[in-house]
């Protein structure tokens, strides 16, 4: 059984975005195909005309079902709901066909649209769901509770989701905190995300630069980061801040202007494939997220020898950072405390160096060989 050439299918919306899910699925699919010799297929619904953002092995097959969920988000809620139902029906029909054709041993969902019907497909495969965000913020349909239709839909959807998760052969979360959050699900495993890289050497001299990486979305808290940086900006004239990510930067440009931040020392950058190079020429990593499922940017930075200063949000940072040893946790949402913590570390190069060494050592528990072995054991147990 240990040498069985398993056949895996991943269901993921797309592979063209520079997101954590896309990065992790690509990384694991490559590893399983190259190192374990698994037959791996990724089935997507969107982005058929876009290039993959992260490298993908020639041994990994990709099937796009041409559903195009991403074309409807600009529509009004009711019209979007009707179109969503139509697309969901098409998705179920096409995915059922492909799974029965491929006959995988295991089908893995990242808990997007297919989770609504995946356990109803009788293709003979075991079904695994892996969630990349904490429960409290998963599929938050109701940030504005003034719309009673959205409130009703959200409650109905969550009730249905829990019932579907109970039918999975296994449910995988990223942290022990999230295992506790899904008490009603009987079969839950904790498997963190793996490190995508671990440089053999790191430079001894670094630029006086703070870096963060993530999409320009509200959840990343870049509005709070810029507020904190405005405080730092008035006191320190040597350090700079660089943000890398996908998304619309217009809102953050306006914040930057309104706060009078020096643009020669604060940069809103696009995402780049070779982000490792940017980590290696920085000195600190900052995370001001309102919430995190895990924190790929955190472990990437630590692998490059960077201490991390992060808001103690739900749940990722506290699952990775040992406070005071390889990074610092700041009261969630406290902008002034974040600014003070950053400045205290910026002006203490000895502490930066010591914490950076600890970070690089401690993050090895997320080495891809270690994490892949956990997945291999789970697959073979099914």
What is the end-to-end distance? 11 Å
The helix/strand series, from N terminus to C terminus, equals EHEEHEEHEHEEHEHEHEEHEEHEHHH
Structural class: alpha/beta
What is the overall silhouette? globular
Going across the major beta sheet, what is the strand order?
3-2-1-4-5-6-7
Uncertain regions spanning at least 5 consecutive residues: none
Query: Hey, roughly how much beta strand do the residues contain?
Result: 15-25%
> What name does the CATH topology of the largest domain carry?
Rossmann fold
Number of domains: 2
Plain-language structure description:
With 382 residues, the chain is α/β, with parallel strands linked by helices. It folds into 2 domains: 7-194 and 367-381, Rossmann fold; 209-365, Rossmann fold (3-Layer(aba) Sandwich), CATH 3.40.50. Helices cover 39% and strands 16% of the residues. It is built from 12 helices and 15 strands. It has helices at residues 20-34, 77-102, 148-166, 176-181, 222-235, 250-258, 275-280, 296-303, 316-320, 335-346, 349-362, 368-381, and strands spanning 7-11, 39-44, 60-64, 106-109, 126-130, 170-173, 188-190, 209-213, 240-244, 266-269, 284-287, 291-292, 308-311, 314-315, 327-330. Strands 3-2-1-4-5-6-7 form a 7-stranded parallel sheet. Helix 5 links the parallel strand 8 (209-213) and strand 9 (240-244). Helix 5 (222-235) packs across helix 10.
């Amino acid at each position: 059984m240990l040498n069985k050439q398993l056949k895996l299918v991943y269901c993921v919306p797309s592979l063209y975005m520079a997101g954590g899910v896309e990065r992790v699925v690509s990384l694991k699919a490559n590893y399983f195909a190259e190192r374990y010799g698994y037959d791996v297929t990724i089935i997507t619904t969107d982005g058929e005309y876009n290039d993959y953002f992260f490298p993908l092995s020639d041994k990994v097959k990709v099937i796009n079902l041409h559903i195009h969920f991403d074309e409807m988000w600009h529509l009004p809620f009711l019209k979007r709901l009707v179109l969503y139902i139509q697309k969901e029906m098409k998705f179920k029909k096409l995915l059922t066909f492909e799974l029965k054709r491929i006959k995988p041993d295991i089908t893995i969902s990242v808990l997007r649209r297919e989770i609504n019907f995946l356990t109803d497909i009788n293709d003979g495969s075991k079904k695994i769901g892996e969630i990349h965000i904490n429960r409290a913020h998963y599929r938050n349909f109701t940030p504005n509770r003034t719309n009673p239709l959205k409130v009703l839909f959200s409650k109905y959807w969550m009730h249905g989701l829990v019932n579907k998760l109970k039918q999975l052969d296994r449910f995988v979360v990223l942290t022990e905190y999230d295992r506790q959050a899904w008490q009603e699900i009987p079969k839950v495993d904790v498997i963190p995300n793996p490190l995508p890289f671990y440089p053999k050497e790191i430079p001894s001299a670094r630029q006086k630069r703070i870096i963060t990486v993530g999409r320009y979305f509200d959840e990343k808290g870049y509005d709070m980061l810029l507020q904190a940086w405005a405080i730092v900006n008035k006191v320190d004239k040597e350090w700079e801040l660089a943000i890398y990510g996908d998304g619309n930067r217009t809102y953050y440009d306006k914040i930057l202007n309104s706060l009078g931040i020096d643009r020669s020392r604060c940069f809103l950058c696009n995402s780049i494939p070779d982000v490792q190079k940017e980590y290696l020429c920085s000195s600190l990593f900052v995370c001001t997220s309102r919430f995190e499922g895990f924190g790929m940017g955190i472990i990437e930075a630590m692998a490059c020898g960077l201490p991390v200063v992060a808001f103690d949000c739900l749940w990722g940072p506290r699952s990775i950072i040992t406070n005071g040893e390889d990074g610092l946790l700041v009261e969630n949402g406290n902008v002034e405390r974040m600014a003070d913590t950053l400045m205290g570390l910026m002006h203490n190069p000895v502490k930066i160096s010591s914490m950076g060494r600890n970070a690089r050592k401690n993050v090895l528990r997320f080495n891809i060989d270690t994490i892949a072995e956990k997945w291999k054991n789970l697959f073979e147990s099914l």
